[in-house]
Amino acid sequence: MNGELVVGEEIAVVALDESGRLNVQRTKFDFHLAGAALAELRHQNRVQADDRTLRGWDVEPTGHPVLDEAVRRLGRPGPNVRIERAIATVAGTARRAVFGHLVETGTLTVQPGGFLRATRYTTVRRSADGVRTDLLRAEAGDPTAHERSLIAFLRSLGWLPEILRLPPTDSRLDSLTRSAADEWGPSAVRRALDFFRAPH
Description:
Elements: H1 7-15, H2 26-43, E1 47-49, E2 53-57, H3 65-74, E3 81-82, H4 83-104, E4 108-111, E5 120-123, H5 128-139, H6 145-157, H7 160-164, H8 171-179, H9 185-197
Antiparallel strand pairs: 1-2, 2-3, 4-5
């Protein structure tokens, strides 16, 4: 998998439609970007979290602006934070951080003159086809932690069969889904989405 991109950036690349627009349900998308950042920090042992609570996090820079923005949004470690609140907090700037870094690194370029100011992007160094090729290659071997996390988030978004261009009954889809079954991030995102949709 492309080592330069964090999982949220891979999700963003595959989220663009054929015109280069981001045609998604924004809250769900932003929560998944936030969950991907927190999951990546958890993989790096920079946050301690279970299904319900974020218990602590390292505020030292990670060296990646998307992850550093997530840490900045969390602020200084204090009392335990409900996972729903942590994801909603990080989601506030997750999309800007992800697309900003993709443009800054030349992975995407901004197309001029978007209709009604709707930003359109052109993929330059990474595309949905590249993600698809890497994930299908991973299925034949042993997916990395990055690949398992990406698989889990794409499945949570409902995009995995479409990205891989596989019918729901294809054994490769089942194999990839099983490889990512224990990933923490998507279940935390679902909990956050359910919490904020419910009447309080």
